[in-house]
Structures are given as structure tokens and as C-alpha cells.
Design brief:
187 residues; mainly alpha; elongated; two-stranded antiparallel sheet
């Protein structure tokens, strides 16, 4: 594509924020903190062994329930939640836009928002196994959680496929649409 002398910018584009705002991002951390406080005060009511899948666990992937193992389990989950929330924020703020304005740009915004929603929903799904483990839920509850997680991911993938990569199917861009925002790659 020959270099263009103009750069297209949409100054009226709405700001992209995390779905649900900061409350939706912080809530899993609040739940983990509350679960940690509850576990510390009710350590005798917890199951004798907790599933912990890292270097602290033995060959059977279970560890004795102590305040240190509970803290490790919750910290591990908190770090994964932070990774999910950070990835959602990065997608909304650091991903390169192909279209600057019009229907194509609206399709891209919708696609990025759906990806961010998927990451935040997965953040909530990360917290639930810790609650189930602390409460000593039956294996059927864990199987239900796994099925719900799988169904949620499938629904999001089908929805994203319908929108198209970068919102291309949603946007309905015409054949004369520009190939990009015409910003030079070094910029």
C-alpha cells in the first residue's frame, strides 16, 4: 500500500473502559481477601487437605490445611486474577486499532470489549474453586464449575466468531474502506 500523507483520527470515539468498571475488577480480590480472613478464623472447619497445584504440593497434589497453605492458595489465585484483569485492561488500551472511525471502528471496539468481558468472567471463575475447596464442597460441585466454565467459554467463542476478528463481520466494512488507520508503523 503506498504511504499516505494523512492520518485519520476519531476525536469523538468513546473512551474504552473495563466492563463493569473497577468494581468488577476488584470484587474477586475482595472475595479472596474475605475468604482468607474467614479461613484464618475458621481453620478448624476447613477440610484436612486442600488442592494446591504448585511446587509446595506433594506428588498427589494435595497439601495439609495450614494458614500458610491457605495463604499460598489464595495468593496464587490472586496473581492469576491480576493477570486476567491486567490483560483485559491492556487489550482495551494498548491494542492497535485498524479503523479509526465509522462502523469498522465500532466493530473493533465491540470485539475488544467482548474479549475484555471474557477475561473478567474467567477472573470470577478462578475464585470459585477456592471457595469450593475451603468449604469442602463435594466433587459434583467442582464438576458443575468445570462444565459452567467450559459452556461460558464456548458461548464467548461463538459470539466472537459471529462478530468476526476485530469486529470485521459486525462492522460491515465496504470494499473501499481503508486498509488501516494509515499511521506509519514506526509511529
Amino acid at each position: 500500500v503506498p504511504a499516505a500523507a494523512t492520518v485519520e483520527i476519531d476525536l469523538a470515539a468513546p473512551a474504552e473502559r473495563l466492563p463493569g468498571g473497577m468494581v468488577a475488577v476488584v470484587l474477586p480480590f475482595v472475595v479472596l481477601l474475605a475468604l482468607g480472613v474467614w479461613a484464618e478464623t475458621h481453620i478448624k472447619r476447613l477440610p484436612a487437605h486442600l488442592p494446591l497445584h504448585n511446587s509446595l504440593s506433594g506428588p498427589d497434589r494435595w497439601v495439609a490445611t495450614t494458614p500458610a497453605t491457605v495463604l499460598a492458595l489464595l495468593a496464587q489465585t490472586g496473581l492469576l486474577c491480576l493477570l486476567m484483569a491486567g490483560s483485559a485492561w491492556a487489550i482495551l488500551h494498548w491494542s492497535r486499532r485498524i479503523a479509526a472511525a465509522g462502523a469498522a471502528a465500532a466493530g473493533e471496539r465491540r470485539f475488544r470489549r467482548r474479549i475484555a468481558q471474557l477475561l473478567l468472567v474467567c477472573e470470577y471463575f478462578l475464585v470459585l474453586p477456592q471457595i469450593l475447596a475451603m468449604l469442602g464442597a463435594p466433587p459434583a460441585a467442582t464438576m458443575f464449575w468445570a462444565a459452567a466454565l467450559l459452556a461460558t467459554i464456548v458461548v464467548f467463542i461463538v459470539g466472537l466468531a459471529r462478530i468476526g476478528q476485530g469486529g470485521s463481520r459486525y462492522a460491515g466494512a465496504g470494499p473501499d474502506a481503508p486498509l488501516g488507520d494509515r499511521t506509519a508503523d514506526e509511529c
